[in-house]
């Protein structure tokens, strides 16, 4: 089939039988109605001095946007959309025992991942700016070209969500883009765009314990419910790399299609993965245990980030070049709704506290959608 237009095209493959599960309280939807039975309506738009590349809910009442090098900030909101705190990305690395960078350095907050207890948020910085740092990388880099140009390793910050202060840092590779915390809270995985590798961080030590080559332009990450396997979207190829978090080795690949950007996992039992293929505008449902593609759906031009509801019944996909967000039912991958957004929606998150969906619009807005 062709993906030449924005017309929704769906290919469904025979389903597998899902196991019976008891849904934990934190994975239910507020009000008890399944997310897939609800409708999206725009509730609020937030502006101000922001350029959000991503937005992430803690599911405990806070939502945080990462505003890149354009603002050098992270902005924290409550679930009602009120600004709680603007956090500067300026940090004195020597305070954390990191030599070679006297004075204050600045970052470029790009993505974030909340710890399972909701107490901390880890934030990746596209680049660092200040004494001892080289030029920022670019999107067409390789490990050799980046090192040759003097691109430095960057840092990830840990934000204390009570004090809103940076309380820990770890050194990542060149141009870290995405990061994810394991369900058991013991491991952080960071993908490094220009290094073509992934950092595995032991969160009991807050230290990188392995840097593993994974392929060209790694980005999205999903981690299995048992915290043993990370699935890494290799955007410069057609695969998800299977990264064993115990042996620190790539142990396999799942073929999904070119330009795979983002991946999320079914929050109920982890059986299914949902991935976005940016260039073709396609979202796929994959059986994680068999590697089989169960369905392919065209959602729009340049589909970027995917979010999944707490009950696992719906996914939400932002389409960067179509200026839309698409809502799909996970059971059969039927498109339930497509709604207009601002120009260039790039990030999306599902707030388990309220059931609302937040969209990061790169041109300077956050849009909050009710689900009723």
CATH architecture: 7 Propeller
Q: Let me know the CATH homologous superfamily.
A: YVTN repeat-like/Quinoprotein amine dehydrogenase
> Could you name the ranges where pLDDT drops below 50 across 5 or more consecutive residues?
1-26
Mean pLDDT: 93
Largest sheet: 5 strands, antiparallel
Task: Give the amount of beta strand, in percent.
Answer: over 45%
Using the coordinates above, name the CATH class: Mainly Beta
Secondary structure category: mainly beta
Spatial strand sequence of the major β-sheet? 1-22-21-20-19
Describe the model.
The protein has 2 helices and 29 strands. The chain has helices at residues 68-71, 143-148; strands at 10-12, 40-46, 54-57, 62-66, 73-78, 83-88, 109-114, 120-125, 155-160, 165-171, 176-181, 187-192, 197-202, 207-213, 218-223, 229-234, 239-244, 249-255, 260-265, 272-277, 282-287, 293-298, 303-308, 314-319, 324-329, 334-340, 345-350, 357-361, 365-371. The strands form 7 sheets. The protein has a 5-stranded antiparallel β-sheet, with no helix packed on it. The model is unreliable at 1-26 (pLDDT under 50).
């Amino acid at each position: 089939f062709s993906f030449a237009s924005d017309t929704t095209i769906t290919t469904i493959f025979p389903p597998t039988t899902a196991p019976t599960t008891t849904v934990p309280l934190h994975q239910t939807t507020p009000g008890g109605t399944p997310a897939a039975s609800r409708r999206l309506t725009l509730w609020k738009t937030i502006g101000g001095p922001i350029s959000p590349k991503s937005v992430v809910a803690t599911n405990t009442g806070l939502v945080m946007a990462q505003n890149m090098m354009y603002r050098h900030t992270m902005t924290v909101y409550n679930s009602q959309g009120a600004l709680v705190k603007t956090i500067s990305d300026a940090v004195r690395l020597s305070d954390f025992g990191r030599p070679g960078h006297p004075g204050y350095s600045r970052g470029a907050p790009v993505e974030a991942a909340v710890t399972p207890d909701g107490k901390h948020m880890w934030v990746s910085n596209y680049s660092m700016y200040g004494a001892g740092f080289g030029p920022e990388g670019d999107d067409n880099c390789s490990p050799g070209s980046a090192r040759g140009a003097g691109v430095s390793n960057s840092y990830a910050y840990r934000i204390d969500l009570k004090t809103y202060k940076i309380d820990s840092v770890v050194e990542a590779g060149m141009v870290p883009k995405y990061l994810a915390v394991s369900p058991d809270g013991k491991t952080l995985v960071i993908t490094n765009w220009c290094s073509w590798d992934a950092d595995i961080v032991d969160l009991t030590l807050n230290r990188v314990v392995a840097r593993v080559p994974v392929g060209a332009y790694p980005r999205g990450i999903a981690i299995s419910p048992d915290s043993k396997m990370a699935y890494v979207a290799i955007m410069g190829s057609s695969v998800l790399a299977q990264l064993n978090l115990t042996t620190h080795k790539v142990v396999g690949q799942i073929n999904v299609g070119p330009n795979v950007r983002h991946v999320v996992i079914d929050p109920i039992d982890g059986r299914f993965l949902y991935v976005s293929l940016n260039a073709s505008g396609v979202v796929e449902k994959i059986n994680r245990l068999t590697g089989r593609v169960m369905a392919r759906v065209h959602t729009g031009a340049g589909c970027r980030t995917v979010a999944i509801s707490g009950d696992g019944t719906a996914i939400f996909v932002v389409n960067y070049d179509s200026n839309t967000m698409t809502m799909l039912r996970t059971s059969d991958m039927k498109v339930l709704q497509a709604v207009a957004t601002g120009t260039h929606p790039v990030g999306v998150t599902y707030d388990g506290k309220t059931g609302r969906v937040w969209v990061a619009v790169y041109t300077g807005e956050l849009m909050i959608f009710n689900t009723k």
